[in-house]
Design brief:
Strand content: 25-35%
Number of helices: 10
Largest sheet: 9 strands, mixed
Distance between the termini: 29 Å
Structural class: alpha/beta
CATH architecture of the largest domain: 2-Layer Sandwich
CATH class of the largest domain: Alpha Beta
Radius of gyration: 21 Å
Bound molecules: flavin-adenine dinucleotide
Length: 421
């Protein structure tokens, strides 16, 4: 069976890999010249199994209100004349209800555990490298109140078999000596030793190469303008190549992995996907002083900022902005991330050579991705991974390949079909 995967971000490339491993004949289409040049390009680098709680949680509405109007706020809403934005915000508020938030946390945790196991197996099978580190993630707390909530999180993690422990400032510094300068401010940490970090862009490019060797055909610089429908099925994909020449590509089945852009494409087919772009920023700097630059991946829980060591670089990422499809770099947002690096780890990186980047997280209100068949029998989804696309990539793609092969996914509960979200 020939399958066209729409998108060569981390989701599309892992989908192509697991489908080809399952015996499908696979082609991939992307408008960019290479894999992983959009949202999968410069994310925070965390395989964060220990952070399954979605943004939509009971505390989120009050926290967002506190941040309202602050240009450097971790979460920023720039209201648009766009019904999709308001629909998304209302659905987000619904997902903040305690029972929804609990259900979403459990679903993400199960998929994340499976995904981390699949990533390790894939690494062992292919030998690909991507500046990855298996040194865990340390969540940092600078207020006693937030640290108190961290202790409550341990129970949820334990119920999914995710190893984690809370620790005081001295233990945090033992785990990551570069934190020594923060001993006075730090209240405590939550350490998840089995978490990992690595460069999603390098991973995706390396896996695309392996997929090509395994027979997957990549059509880059090819933009999809419309999905054509005939008799209740997808009949073909209308595309234009780099020179603007139109064409139609056909297959037996199609998988949508277009990140934030997929919802608009399937809307004319009557499919309403609850995906909205949530913009985030990252800064990448060369390591200037290795003794000051952390190697353990860190999450600053008060600022919602993450930091990962990627070889001889440091990547700092964060912030969430609902501002439509705008990918412009706003100086204030970039500065707040650079200030974080300067204040937490002065001298660690060469900030003169900082590379700024912004990407659009394809976010559902619940942060649950959509994995499964659409209402059209030959159109499938693997999309909407929001804040956790790197963490969930391998498990999501493996689950989709199972579904398309007529098997049950290996994740016990599977509330990821479009109708569940
Ligand atoms: C600042 C930031 C930090 C993050 N940190 C982390 C982290 O630490 N850990 C984690 O797990 N996740 C993280 N994420 C989330 C993660 O990066 C995303 O969930 C993931 O990259 C989404 O991948 P994707 O393949 O679905 O989308 P994309 O990478 O955007 O891929 C979609 C592809 O579709 C193509 N495309 C779209 N429309 C068309 C069209 N019409 N025709 C042809 N091609 C098209 C695009 O060119 C693109 O290549 C972060 C995100 C951001 C923004």
């Amino acid at each position: 069976m020939h399958v066209i995967v729409l998108g060569a971000g981390i989701t599309g490339v892992t989908t192509a890999w697991y489908l080809t491993q399952a015996g499908f004949d696979v082609s991939v289409i992307d408008r960019e010249p290479e894999a992983a040049l959009e949202t999968s390009f410069a994310n925070g680098g965390q395989i964060s199994v220990s952070h399954p709680e979605p943004w939509a949680n009971p505390a989120a509405p009050l926290t967002a209100l506190r941040w309202l109007g602050r240009e450097d706020a971790p979460l920023l809403l720039r209201p648009q004349l766009d019904a999709a934005q308001w629909r998304w915000v209302l659905a987000f508020l619904h997902e903040c209800l305690p029972h929804r938030s609990r259900r979403n946390t459990d679903a993400i945790a199960s998929l994340a555990v499976h995904s981390a196991e699949r990533l390790r197996a894939l690494r062992a099978a292919t030998g690909i490298t991507y500046d990855h580190l298996e040194r865990g993630i340390l969540h940092l707390f600078f207020s006693a109140k937030e640290f108190g909530h961290a202790r409550e999180r341990l129970g949820v993690l334990a119920s999914h078999g995710i190893r984690a422990e809370t620790c005081g400032p001295a233990d945090c510094i033992r785990i990551e000596p570069a934190l020594a300068g923060l001993s006075a401010a730090l209240v405590g940490g939550l350490y998840a030793p089995d978490d990992e970090s690595g460069d999603a862009h390098r991973f995706t490019q390396a896996l695309a190469e392996r997929a090509r060797e395994a027979g997957v055909r990549f059509h880059f610089r090819t933009t999809v303008s419309r999905i054509a429908r005939l008799g209740g099925r997808v009949d073909g994909i209308e595309v234009t190549d780099e020179a603007g020449r139109p064409g139609i590509l056909k297959a037996d089945a199609y998988v949508l992995c277009f990140g934030s852009y997929g919802a608009r494409l399937v809307a004319p087919l009557g499919e309403r996907l609850p995906i909205y772009p949530v913009k985030g920023y990252s800064v990448t700097v060369p390591v200037a002083d290795p003794s000051r630059a952390p190697c353990v991946s860190l999450t600053d829980e008060s600022r919602r900022i993450v930091c990962s060591r990627l070889g001889d670089r440091l990547r700092v990422a964060g912030t969430a902005e609902l501002s439509g499809f705008d990918t412009a770099l706003h100086p204030e947002r970039c500065r707040s991330i650079l200030n974080w690096l300067d204040s937490r780890f002065p001298g660690a990186g060469d900030t003169e050579k900082a590379q700024m980047w912004a990407g659009l997280r394809p976010a559902t209100p619940s942060n649950l991705p959509l994995i499964g068949r659409s209402r059209l029998p030959n159109l499938w989804y693997n999309t909407g991974h929001g804040t956790l696309g790197w963490t969930l990539a391998c498990g999501s793609a493996d689950s989709l390949a199972d579904l398309m092969s007529g098997r049950r996914p290996k994740v016990a509960a599977f509330p990821f079909l479009a109708s569940d979200n």
